[in-house]
Each structure stands twice: as C-alpha cells, then as structure tokens.
From TrEMBL:
<keyword id="KW-1015">Disulfide bond</keyword>
<feature type="domain" description="Ig-like">
    <location>
        <begin position="12"/>
        <end position="124"/>
    </location>
</feature>
<dbReference type="GO" id="GO:0035020">
    <property type="term" value="P:regulation of Rac protein signal transduction"/>
</dbReference>
<dbReference type="GO" id="GO:0061041">
    <property type="term" value="P:regulation of wound healing"/>
</dbReference>
<dbReference type="GO" id="GO:0007156">
    <property type="term" value="P:homophilic cell adhesion via plasma membrane adhesion molecules"/>
</dbReference>
<dbReference type="InterPro" id="IPR013783">
    <property type="entry name" value="Ig-like_fold"/>
</dbReference>
<dbReference type="InterPro" id="IPR013106">
    <property type="entry name" value="Ig_V-set"/>
</dbReference>
<dbReference type="GO" id="GO:0044291">
    <property type="term" value="C:cell-cell contact zone"/>
</dbReference>
<dbReference type="InterPro" id="IPR036179">
    <property type="entry name" value="Ig-like_dom_sf"/>
</dbReference>
<feature type="signal peptide">
    <location>
        <begin position="1"/>
        <end position="27"/>
    </location>
</feature>
<keyword id="KW-0677">Repeat</keyword>
<dbReference type="InterPro" id="IPR003599">
    <property type="entry name" value="Ig_sub"/>
</dbReference>
<dbReference type="InterPro" id="IPR003598">
    <property type="entry name" value="Ig_sub2"/>
</dbReference>
<keyword id="KW-1133">Transmembrane helix</keyword>
<dbReference type="GO" id="GO:0043184">
    <property type="term" value="F:vascular endothelial growth factor receptor 2 binding"/>
</dbReference>
<comment type="similarity">
    <text>Belongs to the nectin family.</text>
</comment>
<feature type="transmembrane region" description="Helical">
    <location>
        <begin position="368"/>
        <end position="392"/>
    </location>
</feature>
Length: 433
C-alpha cells in the first residue's frame, strides 16, 4: 500500500519536473512566506519567484484589491511600499500594522497558466497595563470586590491577582471585540481595619511579551470608624503648673474636626486649643474636672476623657530640740503627698468617680533625740523607785525581828518568877507580847 502511494505521487511529480526542465517557460512558480507582527509594527511580505521570465507579477490584499502591478503601485495606501522587485524576489512592506490588516496576501504570476501563493499576515496585540475597578467602597467588617481588566489583547491575555507573593484565585471572563479579546479577573474577600493600605497587584501575561509581564499595583482603601486616645502628662500637677493634653485620633477617612469639652462645665478661660492639643497655663484647683476629646467621621464617632487633679503647694514647719548649748534652729519640711496618677480612660462618655488620690497625706518630722531622752528619763525614774522600795522593805523587817527578840526575854523572866513561887498577884500579871 505504501509503495503504491509513493508511485502514484512521486512518478507524476518527476515527470512534471523533467518537463519543466525542457520547457522552462511553462514551469515558472511563486512562493510566499507567512508573517506574524505586533500591532503597530512593520510587516514584510515576500514573494519568491522561480524561473521568472518577465511575466506579470500582481500582489493583492486580503480583500483582493491589487496593491502592485509588477513594480507599479495600484492602491493609494502609503503604508504599502515596494522595497524590492527582482527576478527572484518581490518584497513589499506594510507599516503601522493593525488587526484589520490581517489575512492572506496573494502573490500571483501570470504566465500561460496562472500561479499564485498566499502569504498569511497575523497581527499580535499585547495587552496594555491592566486597570483595577472597585465595585463599592470597602468598609471594616464587610467585603471588597476588585476587578482587574485588560480591555484589548490578541490572543487573549492571562490575568492573575497577587498578594504577599501568593496568587488569589478569581473568576475570569472573556469577551470578543472584533478580532481582539477583553479579559477580566474578579476577586472578593472580607476586609478588616488592618487591611487598610494592603498591597495587591494584577499581572498580565501574553505570548507577545515573552517572559515579561504588565503589572498594575493597587492598595486597599478600607474605611473604618475613628478611635480616640488622650495622651496624659507625666507626674502630678500642682497649682501654677501647665497642663498639655494631646488627642491622638485615627480613622479612615481621618476626622478633620476634634472637639474638646469639660463634662458638666464650660472650658476654663485660659484654655487654649490648637487642633488635637489642649493646654491650660497656671493651673489651680478650680480647673479640676473631667475633660473630653471627641472625633467622628461618616462611619462612626469616638471619645476619650481625662480627669485633672491639681494639688496644693503647702509646707509644714517643725522645730528640732537642742542637743547642746547651741540654740534650736527651726527647719521647714514640705508636705509629702501621694496622689493617684490620673488614669487614661477608654472611649466612653460617662466619667469615672473622682480619684481617691485627691486626699493629701501630711507627715510631720519628729526628732528622734526627743523621744530617746524621754525614754531614758522614764527608765531612770523607774529604777530609782525600785531601789527606794527595796531599801524601805529591808529596814522594816529588821525592826520587826528586834522587837520579837525583846518579847522573848520578858517572857522568860515571867516563867522564872512563876517557878520560884512568887505571890499570886505577881503571877497574874499580863504581858503583852
């Protein structure tokens, strides 16, 4: 079967070739080459002639309009130019190529038998940098929908969404516009406040670009309600000091107006407000109270407050007792107060109870020498009393023993008289022991 096929095709071809060598005038041929060019570029259309003997050569466009008759222009289109006409090659150029120029260009050689070949012109349209469309504003807690679009390419471009080096899957779609394609890729995902300013990119790939790509960078714009925080001063405040508060505000969009107020009272006369800064010079206790900072935008409002406590500048004077002949010197000890530092509160509108640190504790300095002297005097007095008491007790006991011995002597004399037979009057004599 294979041998029969070769015999059927090769034998006639060989016969024709031999005949052409014998009669060259009847075997002239023409060849054309296909061309691919980028839109806007220049295309070269070539027709190769074999055994040309000066016959008529005609080049026609895809609509079969004659562009050149031999070397003469036939169609008034300055984009076409005859750059070469020889016995072996005919070449024309087409500048500023568009997709409408696509199609087959005919190279025809008119001899005894007409010969023609078609050179196919293909136009490639690389995509421009894609665009990003947002369907609606992104709000904290909601979803954002982003669409990357490449309105014109041929063949159709490929679009990808990238965030933090990773591709975000999306929904792709294509539409045909004449001979080009419109491509889109849509993504949708939830957003939070932290996503504001996040960087994304849409990348377009196309065969005409090779390894290159067209990139559109985009930053998320997430709207959210404001937050307010009052930055308090460090340390405690006393009469005569200055107060400076800063209201730190964030939000998208950023609130333009910041309002300062004092709860249940009007602001002091010496209060100065400059945007987010609130100041009071030469503080006094009449300035005590709760101060409020408020801000709002289209998505909400917030506030924070600060409780001001101003303390007295009071001192206590104490006298140190003399320890020698040097006269006493009065010394002044300032009051040491321990106020509670005003606490930065959360954004609410109702103030907290007053700071318990408003009570001022006063400590007076008592000399330790006075206390030691008093204690030494008390100890000495107690020792003296004990000594006197013991001495008196010992003396009284000795006197008692002396009288007791005397009584025993008298009692012996009475016994002796009774034994010697003294008269009865004398025997009845009573003795008090």
């Amino acid at each position: 079967m294979a041998f029969a096929t070769v015999w059927n095709y090769c034998v006639p071809l060989a016969i024709i070739t031999v005949a052409c060598l014998v009669r060259t005038a009847r075997c002239q041929a023409v060849q054309a080459e296909n061309v691919t060019v980028l839109e806007g570029g220049t295309a070269e259309i070539s027709c190769r002639l074999q055994n040309y003997d000066g016959s008529i050569v005609v080049i026609q466009n895809p609509r079969r309009q004659t562009l050149f008759f031999n070397g003469t222009r036939a169609l008034k289109d300055d984009r076409f130019q005859m750059v070469l006409f020889s016995t072996r090659l005919v070449r024309i150029t087409l500048t500023n190529v568009s997709v409408l120029d696509e199609g087959g260009y005919f190279c025809q050689l008119y001899t005894d038998a007409t010969h023609h070949q078609v050179a196919t012109l293909s136009v490639s349209v690389p995509p421009e940098t894609p665009t990003v469309e947002v369907k609606q504003e992104a709000v904290e807690g909601g979803e954002v929908e982003l669409t990357c679009m490449s309105p014109r390419s041929k063949p159709a471009a490929t679009l990808r969404w990238i965030r933090n080096g990773r591709e975000i899957p999306g929904v792709e779609s294509q539409q045909v516009n004449a001979k080009t394609f419109s491509v889109s890729n849509t993504i949708r995902f939830p957003v939070e406040r932290k996503d504001n300013g996040a960087a994304l990119s849409c990348e377009a790939f196309h065969p005409a670009l090779g390894v290159q790509k067209r990139i559109r960078h985009y930053r998320l714009d997430v709207n959210f309600a404001p937050t307010v925080r009052i930055v308090p001063p460090s340390g405690i405040l006393r009469e005569g000091d200055s107060l400076s508060l800063t209201c730190s505000v964030s939000g998208n969009p950023l609130p333009r107006n910041i309002q300062w107020s004092k709860i249940n009272e009007s602001l002091p006369e010496r209060a100065e407000i400059s945007g987010p800064t609130f100041q009071i010079s030469r503080l006094s206790q009449s300035h005590n109270g709760t101060y409020l900072c408020q801000a709002q935008n289209n998505y909400g409002r917030a506030a924070d407050h600060y409780t001001l406590l101003v303390y007295d500048n009071v001192s206590v004077t104490t006298t140190v007792p003399p320890t020698s002949t040097v006269p006493p010197t009065p010394t002044t000890q300032p009051i040491t107060s321990h106020p509670a530092t005003p606490t930065l509160l959360t954004p609410i509108f109702a103030p907290k109870p007053s700071d318990p640190g408003a009570v001022v504790e006063t400590h007076s300095a008592v000399p330790y020498a006075v206390i030691g002297g008093v204690l030494a005097l008390l100890v000495f007095t107690v020792i003296c009393v004990l000594i006197v008491t013991i001495w008196c007790s010992v003396r009284q006991k000795g006197s008692y023993l002396t009288h007791e011995a005397s009584g025993l002597d008298e009692h012996g004399e009475v016994q002796e008289a009774f034994l010697n037979g003294n008269d009865a009057s004398q025997g009845k004599k009573e003795y008090l022991l």
